[in-house]
Amino acid sequence: MKARVHVMPKPGVLDPQGKAVAQALASLGFKGVGEVRQGKVIDLELTETDPALARDAVDQMCRKLLANTVVESYGIELDT
Amino acid sequence: MKARVHVMPKPGVLDPQGKAVAQALASLGFKGVGEVRQGKVIDLELTETDPALARDAVDQMCRKLLANTVVESYGIELDT
Q1: Which of A36, A40, A72, B25 falls between 20 and 30 A from A66, CA-CA?
Q2: Rounded CA gap, B1 and A62, in Å?
Q3: pLDDT 10s per residue in chain A (80 long)?
């Protein structure tokens, strides 16, 4: 089973990478771009076949390693 | 309109971040984790309302700034 995790800065948390992207896009001449937020995406290959157990395991991975839950939120998608 | 861009290392391209995550997960005791790939996700707020034009614009942004198409592939999702 494959899992995809998105880790994004929480709303209100400063996102210097997103700001840098927004400024670079503006300086390249792209108009009409508002807020930009940049995060991480992590694709995992799992041997677990039960979706509920897989989601639990990935949730634990997010809390222990992948996301800093003080300033980042995460989302999990399973590709069964 | 909102757009989400995923930028991932192409298959076959070394991904040291993904490898580091896989090793860290293993050392934390998570079993059954195979290949891990890490990429970027960029959320953009666009004033463009036409989906086709928005996709074209974001595609240009990917080619010019967001992705290094030699070693990275990208995908665009529009939230209309």
Answers
A1: A36
A2: 29
A3: 999 999 999 999 999 999 999 999 999 999 999 999 999 999 999 999 999 999 999 999 999 999 999 999 999 999 97
**SS3 at position A80:** coil
Q: Determine, for residues B6 and A42 on separate chains, whether the beta-carbon distance falls below 8 Å.
A: no
* Residue at token pair 């494959």: A2
Q: What is the CATH number of the domain that holds B49?
A: 3.30.1280.10
Please give, rounded to a whole number of angstroms, the shortest distance from the CA of A30 to a CA of chain B.
8
Least CB-CB distance to B42: which of A21, A42, A65? A21
Q: What is the pTM of this model?
A: 0.93
Q: Which residue has the tokens 């896989």?
A: B22
Domain count, chain B: 1
Given CB atoms, is A67 within the 8 Å cutoff of chain B?
A: no
- Domain of B32? 2-79
- Nearest CA distance, A71 vs chain B (angstrom): 16
